[in-house]
Structures are given as C-alpha cells and as structure tokens.
Design brief:
Elements (H helix, E strand, L loop, with lengths): L4 H19 L3 H13 L5 H8 L55 H10 L7 E5 L5 H10 L2 E6 L2 H14 L5 E5 L12 E4 L3 H6 L1 H4 L7 E5 L10 E5 L7 E7 L10
Parallel strand pairs: 1-2, 1-4, 2-3, 4-5
Antiparallel strand pairs: 5-7, 6-7
Length: 259
C-alpha cells in the first residue's frame, strides 16, 4: 500500500501524542518520587543550630535564653572606690629646752662659803637650780649629811652630776633630775643655791616667794634686782680675785620702787 507524505506526517503526529499520553498516566509515581527527595533533603541549617545549642535545666529548646548582652539583664553596681583612711594626728614634738647660761663651774672655795652662809644642817633640804656637774649638792651631802637635789636641762650636765654622785658615794642622799628650773615646785626646799644671771634670778622670784619662812637663798656672783640681800660676802680664791656671794631669807625683802 502506498502512503503519501502527507499521511506519514499524520502518523508521526499520532505517535507523538500517544507518547505524551503515556507519560501523563502515572502522576502518583512522580509525586512519590518528589516526596522521597524532600525526605532526604538536609534539614534547615537554622534548626540544626538551635538543636545543637545547649539548654539550661528546666528550659525548653523553644525558650529563648537571654544573653549577657541583653539590655534587660541587670548588671552588678560598680565596686565603691577605696577611701583613704585619715592618718592619726601626730602631735608636734617639742624641742628640748636649751640651757639659759653656759656652764662655768663654781670654785670649791665658793661652794663651801655658800653652804656656810646658808647655815646648812643635816635637817635641811638643798635645791641647786642649774646644778652643772653636781658639786654643790655632793658637797652638801658629804659635809652636812642632808638631802640635796640637783636640777638641770642639759643632759650632759645631768650625766656629769650622776657620775659625781656615784664617785663620792652619796647616792642615798642626792637626787639629780633633768628638769626646767622655771617650772619647779620649790616648796619642799629650805635652802636654794644659784649661779645663774641677774635676769634669771629675778625670773625666779615668784617661785622663791613660795618657800617656807626662814628658807635661805644663796647666789654666786649675781644679785636679785628688787630684793634686798641679808648679807653679801667676798670670797678670795680661784686665781686671786674675789667672788661675791649673796644671801636672802624668806619672806623676801622687796625694795621700794623708785619713781
């Protein structure tokens, strides 16, 4: 049988249509294949991260765990700055008082005359104001057996006096103390010996006026302005020139003030 070209074309069209119809008869198989593909598709990366993130006890994975940087999280208050403690108040140290006069030893002849003029006995208490090397109080203790006290502000003189007391064995009668003579209570003394300066003798008048009545005050070389002495004597010795010794008794005899 002879088929024309036009007929062959139509046959070809029919065949193609038939093939298309066969491919559309099994739609379920394509859907099933598609579901398998979706089942093997890797899980969403975000979900994987959430699943791998650790959770605290009692917190479900769906709950949001606040981070340290969340604005709602309370931060601890800053530690208070250390406060410097106030150091304890330090009282200013007071400089030791310096001697008012340079130490010049009283010659032994004058020492003897001073104690003689004061008529010292074993019942007296002698105060030497500005005792130097302690020769007056040592002599009083050795010669008359009385109690004697030496006072000075110079530590070097105090040391010399104590050595003199120990050397002469009169420690049981003599006491040496480092004190300011212008702050002393002289009321226990009944004999006071001085070798100072005229101005310093005058400065001592308020203290000397508190001595018991009948107390004696003797000064080597210098008087006491405004107070009349009971006796003034000159002692020869120490190179041939005279030394003056003044004696006052209490109550002091004040000189009349001249206008």
């Amino acid at each position: 049988m002879t088929v024309s070209n036009q007929g062959l074309k139509w046959v070809w069209v029919v065949v193609c249509l038939g093939l298309v119809g066969c491919s559309s008869e099994k739609p379920g198989s394509q859907k099933a294949t598609g579901s398998k593909a979706s089942a093997t598709k890797p899980a969403d990366s975000t979900a994987g991260k959430a699943a791998s993130q650790p959770t605290s006890p009692g917190t479900s994975p769906a709950q949001k765990v606040p981070s340290a940087t969340t604005s709602g999280t309370a931060t601890p208050p800053p530690a208070p700055a250390p406060t410097a403690q106030n150091p304890p108040a330090v009282e200013p140290t007071q400089e030791p008082k310096r001697p008012d006069v340079i130490f010049v030893p009283t010659p032994q002849e004058v020492v003897d005359k001073m104690l003689e003029l004061a008529q010292v006995t074993k019942d007296d208490v002698v105060y030497d104001l500005g005792c130097g090397d302690g020769r007056i109080v040592v002599t009083a203790a050795k010669k008359f057996g009385c109690r004697a006290f030496g006072f000075d502000v110079d530590p070097e003189r105090i040391q010399e006096s104590k050595e003199n007391v120990e050397k002469n064995g009169v420690g049981n009668l003599v006491t040496i103390e480092q004190k300011d003579i212008f702050t002393l209570d002289l009321s226990k003394a009944n004999v006071v010996t001085l070798y100072l300066l005229p101005s310093l003798n005058v400065k001592l008048i308020p203290q000397l006026e508190k001595l018991k009545p009948g107390s004696r005050i003797v000064s080597h070389a210098f008087d006491m302005k405004g107070v009349t002495p009971d006796q003034v004597v000159t002692v020869d010795g120490d190179g041939g020139y005279g030394r003056t010794v003044y004696l006052w008794t209490t109550p002091l005899k004040k000189e009349a003030e001249t206008k």
